[in-house]
Amino acid sequence: MAVILSKASATSFLFSLVLLHLITLSLQQMEMSPAPSPGPVGMMDCEGACTERCKETKRPHLCKRACGSCCLKCNCVPPGTSGNYDACPCYFNLKTHNQIRKCP
């Protein structure tokens, strides 16, 4: 009986070591993989684009604030003072908590 228990203990111990080794290798590979880039390489001039987008609105400060946050998330602003959302689908699809389009 002691021999069987000893073999079971040794097998369990070896299995644990192999499992621990595999987990360690997996963690090392995750650490070595390149991190995703922090953002798009070519960040656009959101302030200038939003100034152009909001130049004909009645509430330019509110428009620029909303446009600026949308531009930072999407890295694009549709051309013109309104519409043209097909040029920047991300900008068009951003919604507020009430499911209202966020970006002017």
UniProtKB/TrEMBL annotation:
Q: Which domain of life is it from?
A: Eukaryota
Q: Which InterPro entries match?
A: GASA (IPR003854)
* Keywords for the protein's UniProt record, in alphabetical order: Signal
Coiled coil start-end: none
Q: What residue range is the signal peptide?
A: 1-28
* Family to which this protein belongs: Belongs to the GASA family.
Q: Mind telling me what this protein is named? A: Gibberellin-regulated protein 1-like
User: Which source organism does the UniProt entry give?
Assistant: Heracleum sosnowskyi
Traced from the root, the source organism's taxonomic lineage reads: Eukaryota, Viridiplantae, Streptophyta, Embryophyta, Tracheophyta
